[in-house]
């Protein structure tokens, strides 16, 4: 049983497709139409997944403590609330990156202090 917050989703164990019959069907028995035309290997020779489309950004799953009222507000926005929360965090990050250029993002490692001054500030030490 699959459940999704407030609703119950069920899937039948067996679909209506007779896979054994389909597998045994010879190619000449396939009916091609305008919507499903015959193709050849040449038609697929240059096929590339995501051509012209950006690849999706890799997401990381984390445990994050958020105030109950903030979480309730985002959830109240409906489906996609986690994506919107991510966009808010990303906007904040970009704004802070302009305000604090001495902090650089190293790929797959998180923020990395790149100057001795930034490290002194982090440790609460004065110059």
Written description of the protein model:
The model has no long low-confidence stretch (mean pLDDT 77). The termini are far apart. The chain has 5 helices and 4 strands, in the order ββααααββα. The chain is elongated. The protein is of the alpha+beta class. The longest helix is centred in the last third of the chain and has 19 residues, at 81-99. The strands form 2 sheets. Strands 1-2 form a two-stranded antiparallel sheet. A two-stranded antiparallel ribbon has the order 3-4. A hairpin with a 3-residue loop joins strand 3 and strand 4.
Condensed summary:
The protein is an alpha+beta fold and 127 residues long. The chain is built from five helices and four strands.
Largest sheet: 2 strands, antiparallel
Strand content: 5-15%
Number of helices: 5
- Total strand segments: 4
- Mean pLDDT reading: 77
| Strand arrangement, major sheet | 1-2
Name the helicity range: 25-40%
Task: Give the helices and strands as they follow along the chain.
Answer: EEHHHHEEH
- Terminal-residue CA separation: 61 Å
Secondary-structure content class: alpha+beta
In one word, what is the shape? elongated
Radius of gyration: 26 Å
Which blocks of ≥5 consecutive residues have pLDDT under 50? none
């Amino acid at each position: 049983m699959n459940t999704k917050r407030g609703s119950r989703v069920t899937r039948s164990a067996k679909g209506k497709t007779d896979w054994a019959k389909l597998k045994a069907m010879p190619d000449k028995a396939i009916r091609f139409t305008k919507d499903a035309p015959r193709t050849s290997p040449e038609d697929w020779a240059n096929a590339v997944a995501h051509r012209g489309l950006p690849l999706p950004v890799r997401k990381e799953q984390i445990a994050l403590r958020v105030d109950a009222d903030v979480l309730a507000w985002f959830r109240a926005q409906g489906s996609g609330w986690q994506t919107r929360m991510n966009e808010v965090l990303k906007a904040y990050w970009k704004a802070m990156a302009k305000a604090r250029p001495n902090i650089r993002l190293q790929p797959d490692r998180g923020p990395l202090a790149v100057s001795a001054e930034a490290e002194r500030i982090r440790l609460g030490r004065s110059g």
